[in-house]
Amino acid sequence: MMESCCCPVKFSALHSAQGVSPSYTCRINSNAFQHKTLSLPSQQFIQLTHRQCLYNGVWPFLSSKTHRWAVYAESGQKSWDFGRFFQTLYFFNGPPNPAKIIASLLEKVSSSTSIESVEKMEISDIVLVAGATGGVGRRVVDILRKQGLPVRALVRNKQKARTMLGPDVDLVVGDITKEETLAPEYFKGVKKVINAVSVIVGPKEGDTPDREKYSQGIKFFEPEIKGDSPEKVEYIGMRNLINAVQSRTGLRDGKLLFGLKGNLSGKLFWGALDDVVMGGVSESTFQIDPSGSEDGGPTGLFKGTVSTANNGGFTSIRTKNFSIPEDLSAYDGIEMRVKGDGRRYKLIVRTSSDWDTVGYTASFDTKDGQWQTIKIPFSSLRPVFRARTKDDAPPFDPSHIFSLQLMYSKFEYDGKLNPTFVEGAFQLPFSSIRAYINEPLTPRFVHVSSAGVTRPGRPGLDLSKQPPAVRLNKELDFILTYKLKGEDLIRESGIPYTIVRPCALTEEPAGADLIFDQGDNITGKISREEVARICIAALGSPYACNKTFEVKSTIPFSEPFTVDPSNPPPEKDYDVYFKTLKEGITGKEALEGNPAPYIIQPICATCEAILNTI
Ligand SMILES: NC(=O)c1ccc[n+]([C@@H]2O[C@H](COP(=O)([O-])OP(=O)(O)OC[C@H]3O[C@@H](n4cnc5c(N)ncnc54)[C@H](OP(=O)(O)O)[C@@H]3O)[C@@H](O)[C@H]2O)c1
Predict the structure, then answer these.
(1) 525-527 and 504-506 as β-strands: parallel, antiparallel, unpaired?
(2) Which segments constitute the NAD(P)-binding domain (predicted)?
(3) Measured from the CB, is residue 198 less than 6 Å from ligand 1?
(4) What is the pLDDT of residue 26?
(5) Which residue owns the Cα nearest ligand 1 atom 45?
(6) Is 169 found in the same domain as 95?
(7) How many domains does the structure of the chain reveal?
């Protein structure tokens, strides 16, 4: 039964019916609904001026039970299905709920602040440096800042970090071994990460406060693990860090929002949203076609019949609001796989949970009978409200996506018409909707690991020629084993990555000639400053993406490397090195009995002699 309502109800555009301007008002007493003739002058449609009620899912006169009434419009003389109208509202807004009225009123009262904060929010590409107080990490922070890039330092000790990095560095305090310390707000605006965190190694006899002994090299002292174990830092810590940043850095294959492989079909709840909300008679549905996809598998289907009767002319399917808004700030746009029919459709993305709100919209053309990938960059979405471009709308905020909508409409925007519009039946199979990152991909997570991580347990290895960490892996609580496990986590995470494996680190300046290698075979030394530069260069290089490599300088251990400050070596183009690297080589091939081709590096007699001593 309907609840009665004392006030007359005025209907208005409930939805941005593309190309139609709302002006008509029609008064109906709720208890006199059956077979009502509505007079709908041309270019006008039903309004509900008790908008607050409908927008927020609060209907003044309808029980949760839906009814089917036919209402006739004089213009076009087609019966308008009042029952469908209310079903639509019910699907998207749920039953009437007094609590929502209060919530909505409160929201409206405080809306000025929320709009302000949306407008102020900028999508910044902050580089998070984890392990920013370490030998490599602090140099990374320094160089990034000198380059004028936005940096945030994740540190354990604020005081130490302030002294080391300066008073104005953006600091967040956390311990990667403790998940709860990695607060989500630390990662706002972060798009890239350089991870130089490491389990702490130090001399058994102790070190100076600034870790002088450690810095000069592990081969000069008897090392032990200080503090948290390698398992905790290199493996569990890495897992925590990846979990904390993944939604910010994004995934190389994109984020699937809709797709019928696996269990994803249930994730989005699509409902029809047709011109019935403005008095029209067009009709559409979302269906699953069990064998309609390219590979004969299931696909989503947006199908229906569109009619211009009663000044209508659009159909659409819209998802219910996501229970948790999607954060797509790591991505550059939305990509759909659709089978076209030669017509122009629209994708509408909403960044507000409100029902009747600005929809960030893009039209896309399809090719008849062809499966095609449609890419809609976020930058191409225009704010549209009731078919009018809203120039004063806040910029599109990809961090708060509440719903998606696919539309087939007679109308474009601002009074223009869809040039491909044809009345009648249509269908648009769509097998996936995902957020994508622009090509070419560049790394979003650069990790400083270590040469030697695949060497413990490698058959046929002459340990006497290996660095101390390889020989002492067991004594150092399996430091390299856990570093490798940590690397595997990042390789498997789906985040575009680079893993840099330096040989023994020195405090020498950058600038020596370098040897990049893969397969985890080389030994030697390299400056921390150089490693920091390599990490930063990797962040911007498609050639470094999804690569794991070792690096050392050509300078033998026995030879100190110095630079004349008045005549520094030229800046390196690290792309020259990155271009030589391949994906998929880690050195684990040797452990798995499938050795990667060993690239023989020229080695001088002095180096060989030194290597034999460490
Ligand atoms: N030493 C070598 O010869 C050598 C050779 C090859 C590869 N590597 C590797 O190269 C990388 C960089 O070396 P490095 O000399 O720069 O290392 P480092 O100076 O020891 O720096 C380690 C950093 O990690 C931080 N850290 C440790 N545990 C943490 C935790 N639970 N949460 C957050 N931060 C934590 C430390 O913070 P605190 O300042 O608070 O301690 C410090 O900032 C390391 O992975 C290292 O193993 C070293």
Answers:
(1) parallel
(2) 131-204, 443-542
(3) yes
(4) 30
(5) 198
(6) no
(7) 3
Ligand 1 centre distance from Cα of residue 428 (Å): 53
Bridge partner list, 404: 349
Cβ(518) – ligand 1 distance below 6 Å: no
Tell me, what's the pLDDT at 80?
Answer: 65
> What's the distance, CA 23 to chain centroid?
41
Of 117, 145, 170, which marks where a domain is finished? Answer: 117
Q: Separation of 142 CA from ligand 1 center, angstroms?
A: 16
Which of 117, 138, 162 is the endpoint of a domain? Answer: 117
Residue 157 within any structural domain of the chain? yes
Range of the domain at 137: 126-252+441-575
- For residue 601, tell me if it sits in a domain: no
| Ligand 1: residue whose CA is nearest its atom 17 | 134
Query: Measuring CA to CA, which residue among 443, 75, 86 is closest to residue 249?
Result: 443
Read off the pTM: 0.81
Ligand 1: does its nearest atom lie under 6 Å from the Cβ of 487? no
Same domain, 270 and 398: yes
Give the mutation target among 157, 197, 485, 507 for probing the ligand 1 site: most ligand atoms within 8 A of CB. Answer: 197
Q: How far is the CA of 599 from the centre of ligand 1 (A)?
A: 29
Q: Would you state the pLDDT for residue 217?
A: 87
**314/407 same-domain check:** yes
- Return the pLDDT at 494: 97
Averages of pLDDT over each 10 residues, the chain, 614 residues: 31 36 31 34 34 34 36 53 69 62 49 33 76 98 97 98 97 98 96 98 94 88 96 98 97 92 67 91 94 93 96 95 94 98 98 94 98 98 94 96 97 95 97 96 98 95 94 97 98 98 97 98 97 98 98 96 95 98 94 54 44 39
Q: Read off the CATH number of the domain in which 530 is found.
A: 3.40.50.720
Q: How many helices (H) and strands (E) does the chain have?
A: 15, 30
424 and 320 in a single domain? The answer is yes
Whether cis (ω within 30° of 0) applies to the bond prior to 184 is: no
Task: Report CA(175)–ligand 1 centroid distance (Å).
Answer: 13
Say whether both 260 and 248 belong to one domain: no
Residue 561 contacts residue 555 (beta carbons within 8 Å): yes
Q: Does residue 452's CB lie within 6 angstroms of at least one atom of ligand 1?
A: no
Q: Whose structure tokens read 């080389």?
A: 522
Q: Supply the residue whose CA is at minimum distance from atom 47 of ligand 1.
A: 198
Ligand 1 atom having least distance to the Cα of 201:
20
Whether 610 maps to a domain, the answer reads no
Query: Do 141 and 248 fall into the same domain?
Result: yes
Domain co-membership, 81 together with 131 = no
Q: Is 468 near ligand 1, meaning CB less than 6 Å away?
A: no
Question: Is position 583 within any domain?
Answer: no
Ligand 1 pocket member 135 (CB < 6 A):
yes
Let me know: does 222 contact 213? Beta carbons within 8 Å: no
- 156 C-alpha to ligand 1 centroid (Å): 12
157 lines ligand 1 (CB under 6 A): yes
State the angle between helix axes of 238-249 and 479-492 in degrees (0 to 180), rounded to the nearest 10.
20
Residues 263 and 329 in one domain: yes
How far, CA to CA in Å, does 184 sit from each of 243, 248, 359? 10, 10, 27
Taken in order 168, 170, 176, 181, is the CA torsion positive or negative? positive
